[in-house]
Design a protein that fits this description.
The protein has 264 residues and is an alpha+beta fold. The chain is built from four helices and ten strands.
Length: 264
Protein backbone atom coordinates (compact mmCIF):
# COMPACT_ATOMS: atom_id res chain seq x y z
CA UNK A 1 0.00 0.00 0.00
CA UNK A 2 1.25 3.46 -0.90
CA UNK A 3 0.69 6.24 1.61
CA UNK A 4 0.76 10.01 1.20
CA UNK A 5 2.10 11.97 4.18
CA UNK A 6 1.60 15.71 4.68
CA UNK A 7 4.44 17.12 6.75
CA UNK A 8 5.48 20.25 8.63
CA UNK A 9 8.85 20.93 10.20
CA UNK A 10 11.03 23.62 11.68
CA UNK A 11 14.21 23.59 9.64
CA UNK A 12 16.52 25.26 12.16
CA UNK A 13 18.14 22.07 13.47
CA UNK A 14 17.92 20.06 10.23
CA UNK A 15 20.57 19.91 7.52
CA UNK A 16 17.87 19.81 4.88
CA UNK A 17 15.41 17.13 3.79
CA UNK A 18 17.67 14.58 2.14
CA UNK A 19 19.59 11.81 3.92
CA UNK A 20 23.32 12.39 3.54
CA UNK A 21 26.33 10.11 3.57
CA UNK A 22 28.12 9.82 6.93
CA UNK A 23 30.91 12.30 7.61
CA UNK A 24 34.55 11.24 7.79
CA UNK A 25 34.28 10.91 11.56
CA UNK A 26 31.34 8.54 11.22
CA UNK A 27 28.70 11.01 12.39
CA UNK A 28 25.66 11.70 10.27
CA UNK A 29 23.76 14.86 9.38
CA UNK A 30 20.36 15.32 11.00
CA UNK A 31 17.81 15.44 8.17
CA UNK A 32 14.03 15.38 7.93
CA UNK A 33 14.04 12.32 5.69
CA UNK A 34 16.35 10.55 8.11
CA UNK A 35 14.14 11.23 11.13
CA UNK A 36 11.01 10.21 9.23
CA UNK A 37 12.55 6.97 8.01
CA UNK A 38 13.70 6.10 11.54
CA UNK A 39 10.12 6.59 12.79
CA UNK A 40 8.73 4.49 9.93
CA UNK A 41 11.18 1.68 10.63
CA UNK A 42 10.28 1.75 14.31
CA UNK A 43 6.59 1.61 13.43
CA UNK A 44 6.63 -1.04 10.69
CA UNK A 45 9.63 -3.09 11.81
CA UNK A 46 11.60 -2.78 8.57
CA UNK A 47 13.29 -0.16 6.40
CA UNK A 48 10.86 2.18 4.61
CA UNK A 49 12.01 4.78 2.07
CA UNK A 50 10.33 8.19 2.27
CA UNK A 51 10.20 10.07 -1.04
CA UNK A 52 9.77 13.83 -0.61
CA UNK A 53 8.19 16.30 -3.01
CA UNK A 54 11.13 18.66 -2.61
CA UNK A 55 14.62 18.66 -1.12
CA UNK A 56 14.47 21.67 1.17
CA UNK A 57 17.91 23.04 2.05
CA UNK A 58 19.49 23.25 5.48
CA UNK A 59 17.50 25.59 7.72
CA UNK A 60 14.45 25.81 5.43
CA UNK A 61 11.05 25.06 7.00
CA UNK A 62 7.88 23.43 5.70
CA UNK A 63 4.18 23.85 6.35
CA UNK A 64 3.17 21.73 3.36
CA UNK A 65 5.85 19.21 2.47
CA UNK A 66 4.53 15.95 0.98
CA UNK A 67 6.11 12.50 1.02
CA UNK A 68 5.00 9.06 -0.10
CA UNK A 69 6.00 5.68 1.29
CA UNK A 70 5.37 2.04 0.46
CA UNK A 71 4.16 0.01 3.42
CA UNK A 72 6.19 -3.25 3.47
CA UNK A 73 4.31 -6.50 3.03
CA UNK A 74 3.58 -8.21 6.31
CA UNK A 75 3.76 -4.96 8.28
CA UNK A 76 1.31 -4.28 11.11
CA UNK A 77 -1.99 -3.03 9.71
CA UNK A 78 -2.49 0.55 10.93
CA UNK A 79 -5.52 2.51 9.68
CA UNK A 80 -4.34 5.64 7.86
CA UNK A 81 -6.46 7.79 10.19
CA UNK A 82 -4.30 6.58 13.09
CA UNK A 83 -1.00 6.63 11.27
CA UNK A 84 -0.18 10.31 11.82
CA UNK A 85 -0.68 9.92 15.56
CA UNK A 86 1.48 6.79 15.61
CA UNK A 87 4.30 8.44 13.66
CA UNK A 88 4.18 11.66 15.67
CA UNK A 89 4.67 9.64 18.86
CA UNK A 90 8.01 8.51 17.43
CA UNK A 91 9.15 11.71 15.71
CA UNK A 92 11.04 14.60 17.33
CA UNK A 93 8.97 17.69 18.15
CA UNK A 94 10.33 19.78 15.26
CA UNK A 95 8.74 17.55 12.60
CA UNK A 96 5.10 16.48 12.44
CA UNK A 97 2.90 14.38 10.17
CA UNK A 98 -0.15 16.57 9.64
CA UNK A 99 -2.14 13.93 7.77
CA UNK A 100 -1.72 10.44 6.33
CA UNK A 101 -3.89 8.93 3.60
CA UNK A 102 -3.85 6.04 1.17
CA UNK A 103 -2.61 7.09 -2.25
CA UNK A 104 -3.09 5.72 -5.73
CA UNK A 105 -0.44 3.15 -6.74
CA UNK A 106 1.00 5.55 -9.33
CA UNK A 107 1.09 8.60 -7.05
CA UNK A 108 4.57 10.07 -6.63
CA UNK A 109 5.13 12.94 -4.23
CA UNK A 110 7.65 14.59 -6.55
CA UNK A 111 6.74 13.57 -10.09
CA UNK A 112 2.95 13.89 -9.65
CA UNK A 113 3.31 17.49 -8.45
CA UNK A 114 2.60 20.34 -10.88
CA UNK A 115 4.07 23.09 -8.73
CA UNK A 116 5.16 24.42 -5.36
CA UNK A 117 4.47 27.53 -3.30
CA UNK A 118 7.09 29.07 -1.03
CA UNK A 119 6.72 31.94 1.44
CA UNK A 120 9.60 34.08 2.67
CA UNK A 121 9.07 36.12 5.85
CA UNK A 122 11.13 39.31 6.05
CA UNK A 123 10.70 41.38 9.22
CA UNK A 124 11.58 45.08 9.04
CA UNK A 125 12.97 46.54 12.25
CA UNK A 126 15.91 46.45 14.64
CA UNK A 127 15.53 42.91 15.98
CA UNK A 128 13.58 39.67 15.64
CA UNK A 129 11.10 38.44 18.22
CA UNK A 130 12.59 35.36 19.95
CA UNK A 131 10.11 32.78 18.65
CA UNK A 132 8.88 34.52 15.47
CA UNK A 133 12.53 34.90 14.56
CA UNK A 134 12.75 31.14 14.16
CA UNK A 135 10.95 31.48 10.81
CA UNK A 136 11.67 35.11 9.91
CA UNK A 137 14.67 36.97 8.56
CA UNK A 138 15.58 40.52 9.59
CA UNK A 139 15.75 43.58 7.35
CA UNK A 140 17.10 46.45 9.44
CA UNK A 141 17.52 48.77 6.44
CA UNK A 142 14.71 50.83 4.83
CA UNK A 143 13.04 49.06 1.91
CA UNK A 144 11.06 50.56 -0.96
CA UNK A 145 8.22 48.05 -1.24
CA UNK A 146 6.96 49.57 -4.49
CA UNK A 147 10.37 48.98 -6.09
CA UNK A 148 10.37 45.39 -4.81
CA UNK A 149 6.95 44.80 -6.36
CA UNK A 150 8.09 46.31 -9.65
CA UNK A 151 11.13 44.01 -9.70
CA UNK A 152 8.89 41.04 -8.94
CA UNK A 153 6.82 41.65 -12.08
CA UNK A 154 10.01 41.56 -14.15
CA UNK A 155 10.99 38.19 -12.73
CA UNK A 156 7.68 36.41 -13.32
CA UNK A 157 7.57 34.22 -16.41
CA UNK A 158 9.07 31.12 -18.05
CA UNK A 159 12.79 31.35 -18.64
CA UNK A 160 16.21 29.97 -17.80
CA UNK A 161 16.73 30.73 -14.11
CA UNK A 162 20.29 29.34 -13.97
CA UNK A 163 21.70 32.70 -12.73
CA UNK A 164 19.37 32.41 -9.71
CA UNK A 165 20.48 28.91 -8.66
CA UNK A 166 23.21 27.73 -6.34
CA UNK A 167 26.01 25.47 -7.48
CA UNK A 168 26.17 21.83 -6.53
CA UNK A 169 23.02 20.53 -8.19
CA UNK A 170 22.30 18.94 -11.56
CA UNK A 171 18.63 19.57 -12.36
CA UNK A 172 18.86 18.52 -16.02
CA UNK A 173 17.28 21.76 -17.19
CA UNK A 174 17.33 25.15 -15.52
CA UNK A 175 14.22 26.42 -17.32
CA UNK A 176 11.41 27.08 -14.87
CA UNK A 177 8.03 28.83 -14.82
CA UNK A 178 7.74 31.42 -12.06
CA UNK A 179 3.98 31.94 -12.08
CA UNK A 180 3.69 34.25 -9.09
CA UNK A 181 6.02 36.48 -7.07
CA UNK A 182 4.12 38.73 -4.67
CA UNK A 183 5.25 41.11 -1.94
CA UNK A 184 2.62 41.72 0.73
CA UNK A 185 2.80 43.85 3.88
CA UNK A 186 1.48 42.87 7.30
CA UNK A 187 2.59 45.75 9.52
CA UNK A 188 6.39 45.37 9.74
CA UNK A 189 6.38 41.93 8.12
CA UNK A 190 6.91 41.44 4.39
CA UNK A 191 5.53 38.20 2.98
CA UNK A 192 7.16 37.24 -0.32
CA UNK A 193 5.23 34.43 -2.04
CA UNK A 194 6.72 32.51 -4.96
CA UNK A 195 4.74 29.93 -6.93
CA UNK A 196 6.08 27.95 -9.86
CA UNK A 197 6.28 24.61 -11.60
CA UNK A 198 9.55 23.93 -9.81
CA UNK A 199 12.49 25.71 -8.24
CA UNK A 200 16.22 25.30 -8.60
CA UNK A 201 18.42 24.89 -5.54
CA UNK A 202 18.54 28.25 -3.75
CA UNK A 203 16.35 29.90 -6.40
CA UNK A 204 13.70 31.34 -4.09
CA UNK A 205 16.32 32.79 -1.77
CA UNK A 206 18.14 34.40 -4.72
CA UNK A 207 14.83 35.87 -5.88
CA UNK A 208 14.32 37.32 -2.40
CA UNK A 209 17.84 38.73 -2.40
CA UNK A 210 17.15 40.37 -5.76
CA UNK A 211 13.92 41.94 -4.53
CA UNK A 212 15.74 43.18 -1.45
CA UNK A 213 18.44 44.78 -3.63
CA UNK A 214 15.68 46.57 -5.56
CA UNK A 215 14.12 47.72 -2.29
CA UNK A 216 17.48 49.08 -1.11
CA UNK A 217 18.00 50.95 -4.36
CA UNK A 218 21.04 48.87 -5.30
CA UNK A 219 19.48 47.88 -8.62
CA UNK A 220 16.73 49.29 -10.76
CA UNK A 221 13.60 47.10 -10.80
CA UNK A 222 13.89 46.67 -14.57
CA UNK A 223 17.38 45.16 -14.10
CA UNK A 224 16.19 42.40 -11.78
CA UNK A 225 16.73 39.63 -14.34
CA UNK A 226 20.19 40.78 -15.33
CA UNK A 227 21.47 41.38 -11.80
CA UNK A 228 20.50 38.57 -9.41
CA UNK A 229 20.95 39.51 -5.77
CA UNK A 230 22.64 37.63 -2.95
CA UNK A 231 21.16 34.47 -1.46
CA UNK A 232 18.82 35.34 1.42
CA UNK A 233 19.30 33.35 4.63
CA UNK A 234 17.44 30.08 4.93
CA UNK A 235 15.49 30.70 8.14
CA UNK A 236 13.02 33.06 6.48
CA UNK A 237 11.92 30.47 3.90
CA UNK A 238 9.03 28.01 4.23
CA UNK A 239 7.70 25.46 1.74
CA UNK A 240 4.02 26.37 2.06
CA UNK A 241 2.31 23.99 -0.36
CA UNK A 242 2.87 21.36 -3.02
CA UNK A 243 0.33 21.49 -5.86
CA UNK A 244 -1.23 18.39 -7.42
CA UNK A 245 -3.94 18.00 -10.07
CA UNK A 246 -6.65 19.21 -10.27
CA UNK A 247 -4.92 22.25 -8.73
CA UNK A 248 -3.26 24.61 -11.20
CA UNK A 249 -0.61 27.29 -11.15
CA UNK A 250 -1.88 30.88 -11.04
CA UNK A 251 -2.08 32.81 -14.27
CA UNK A 252 -2.95 29.82 -16.48
CA UNK A 253 0.76 29.12 -16.97
CA UNK A 254 0.12 25.43 -17.58
CA UNK A 255 -1.59 26.31 -20.84
CA UNK A 256 1.49 28.22 -22.02
CA UNK A 257 4.16 25.88 -20.68
CA UNK A 258 5.67 25.34 -24.14
CA UNK A 259 5.90 29.03 -24.99
CA UNK A 260 9.36 30.32 -26.09
CA UNK A 261 11.72 30.83 -23.18
CA UNK A 262 12.79 34.39 -22.44
CA UNK A 263 16.54 34.85 -22.58
CA UNK A 264 16.65 36.71 -19.23
Amino acid sequence: MRLKLDLAYLGKLFEGWQVQAPRADGTGARTVQGELEKALKDLFGSDVRAHGAGRTDSGVHADGQVAHVEVPEGSPLIPSKNLSRALNSKLPEDVRVLAASEAAPDFHSRYSAIGKVYVYRLRRGEFLHPYRGLVESLASEPLDVAAMRAAATVLVGRRDFAPFSLTGSDPGTTVRTLARLDVEEEDSLLLITAAGDGFLRGMVRRLVGTLRDAGRGRIRPEDALAKPGPTAEARGLTLAKVLYPPETLPGNFLATAVAPVSSG
